[in-house]
Design brief:
- The protein is 66% helix and 6% strand.
- It has a two-stranded antiparallel ribbon.
- It is mainly alpha-helical and 96 residues long.
- β1 and β2 form a beta hairpin.
- The longest helix is centred in the N-terminal third of the chain and has 20 residues.
Length: 96
């Protein structure tokens, strides 16, 4: 199973890299931070912002709106997640 997942990540790598090129620095940083934490209940909490060296809460709110509009981030009852689970894994492997 691990081999299959790694194969999918390898196949989608260029697609995911392209997605990141269309995001601002703040949007990319927020997406990576959500992937790293898997699920984030309070994106604008000071602990989360400091932990991931993110910009201000208002910048996070703007970035989140774009990420949700692009269907990259989804809000569950427990918090925000990266919608594409393979993208989530790819972000972790590439940046974390």
């Amino acid at each position: 199973m691990r081999k299959a997942i790694l194969s999918i990540l390898k196949d989608k790598s260029s697609q995911y890299e392209m997605v990141l090129t269309f995001l601002t620095d703040n949007q990319r940083s927020l997406l990576k931070a959500i992937a790293k934490d898997n699920c984030v209940a309070q994106l604008q909490a000071n602990d989360f912002i400091r932990k991931h060296e993110l910009p201000s809460a208002s910048s996070i709110k703007k970035a989140l709106t774009v990420l949700m509009d692009k269907d990259l981030v989804y809000q569950t009852t427990k918090g925000y997640i990266v919608y594409d689970r393979f993208l989530n894994l790819w972000l972790k492997r590439t940046f974390c």
